[in-house]
């Protein structure tokens, strides 16, 4: 029965991704391991409008206008951006990082699309 519910959950996540490519969510275990290595994360930067794909309690969502928000000094963001907004979000982070380099950091979850414009910015 446990396997059935795991498969159902994966199917639901896949179905949601097919309907809305910008609201995908990475597995909870991946975030926990990442937080152990690079965290703790203070904020999540790119949750969907209802926080359904959020991993953290403190978040900035599409509804909050996450690329309009001040990220400076918030220490570490966990950022799994919508595919359609990756470049804008990376550029926003770089602007905030230049303004306050010491206390502004992000752990991005990005697709390995080396031919896309954002890729050169994050290396």
Apparent shape: globular
Structural class, judged by helices and strands?
Answer: alpha/beta
Helix content, binned percent:
25-40%
Terminal residue distance: 44 Å
Q: Strands of the largest sheet, in order across it? A: 2-1-3-4
Q: How much strand?
A: 5-15%
How would a textbook summarize the main sheet?
4 strands, parallel
H/E series, N to C?
A: HHEEEHEH
* Number of contiguous helices: 4
**What low-confidence regions span 5 or more consecutive residues with pLDDT below 50?**
1-8, 14-19
Arithmetic mean pLDDT = 76
Please tell me about this protein's structure:
By secondary structure, the chain is α/β, with parallel strands linked by helices. It is 40% helix and 15% strand. The protein contains 4 helices and 4 strands; from the N terminus they run ααβββαβα. Strands 2-1-3-4 form a 4-stranded parallel β-sheet, with helices on one face. Strand 3 (75-79), helix 3 and strand 4 form a beta-alpha-beta unit. The longest helix is centred in the N-terminal third of the chain and has 18 residues, at 2-19. The protein starts with a helix and ends with a helix. The relative contact order is 0.14. Residues 1-8 and 14-19 have low confidence and may be disordered.
List the main descriptive attributes of the protein structure presented here.
123 residues; alpha/beta; disordered N terminus
Brief rundown of the structure:
This protein has 123 residues and is α/β, with parallel strands linked by helices.
What topology does this entry show?
Elements: H1 2-19, H2 28-38, E1 43-47, E2 59-61, E3 75-79, H3 86-99, E4 104-108, H4 117-122
Parallel strand pairs: 1-2, 1-3, 3-4
